[in-house]
């Protein structure tokens, strides 16, 4: 609480930043210590807040456990539903019950007053007229000096509350060394020095009250309240100054009697402070109506109105876990491991490949890219069909020598609000690295796009021989195209997926073979030499022009009851050497069954139609349907 005494304000102005006691000796292993500081602290981010601000985002830089620079964004917002925050008079004019006209004249009967009023009985203080950047308003480098946030309110009754919300862009593992100071009060009989005018009542009793709340994903996280000042009481997560008539708990801002420290022991993504005037003010005033007859006769019973009251908000320390990253799983030469500058992405809930992405501690090196798909990460964004199987954006890729402009469909998730970039590489020459000149392709992924068609580089004529029939494809999705100009290194968003690619020799060129026979020797003269030659032609190495598709459908159960789940597996096989194009399969599900999920190995399924697309020669595809038996 700040009161209207010159001596008190002077002591506030020279307040120094004091280090808060620490609940924890150090941040846990695997986390980094991050300091949020207010302007003037001399270190940390030195956040600024002006008396007209309502929300600001601060980027707090730090060094992660690997020694690399990192950052986290913290957004602070002021929630003030009753408009009791004290800012410039222009902003507050018409909002405060005590200042409907926005005037700044002396109170009735006064010639001088440190806090002038406009002469109206409903404007006994008009404290928000003191709205200059160097005085008692909410902001940094205000009444409490550098290194602190001065948080000020002017209540018309004790039920009015306002809040400061701190939201973290990534969960903080725990928070520490956060203090709120100058929580104090004065009893009803207290008269300021110099004595208050009667028009400055009901303002000579007050009590600071703060609530401390933390949460993670909207679920409350307990706070640890410690170093509680001797004049304070704690009920749950609410701290109040001890209130007693005739007692003046008018403490200096640095006095530990009016200070409390708070911390959390579990991850949080939001921390909130509630500030209000304690209800004991109203109760005490109503118990002494003789002191307020001039007020209650016109305005009714007193209700705990308070002169300007304020608390001192410190900076704080928190422990930041390493941001979740996604790595690849190709052989190490590509490269894949973090130590080799392997491709890795900071995970984002708004940008990834396929249906999900999960966190990796490092690259999962495997001969055929599959290690990442078998590792369940500690954090998953999206929903994986199978736990850990986040390499799910592309169906198996098969290419043939000499193929021009082959294309693949890549499943994407982009809700960033802006376009992103997808870049893919295929190791065509089998040298176990990716070449940007001949093996890279890219495309734009629009905001809200769920899939894109990507045209791959032309396949070299002898790649199946060069690679031994198999190679690796790497795809990277990021908001910053420059970060994925190469197949290695860090990206600040998105996902990386490594996939196996099958390469086959091209079918022999179809040719016409002609076999000719001639009569070369004859003793007599042939009267018709034109028929002495005969030929027969055959077509060699020509692909079949007819396809042969085969469907098989099986159920995992032969006997069911109502409510049971049944899995149907539909197998589509091309038994010919010719490609089948634009294939669609209709599924006529009986009314007695309800479809739950449909999972095609290629193409899409919607409204009873499996849109397969092209089916390569000698290829088998599947559609899995999960259904329930209707009651």
Automatic annotation (TrEMBL):
Name of the protein in question: DUF11 domain-containing protein
InterPro entries: DUF11_rpt, GEVED, OmcB-like_DUF11
Signal peptide as annotated in the record: 1-25
Top-level division of the source organism's lineage: Bacteria
Domain GEVED intervals: 422-502
Organism annotation: Candidatus Thiothrix anitrata
Keywords per UniProt: Signal
DUF11 domain: residues covered: 548-630
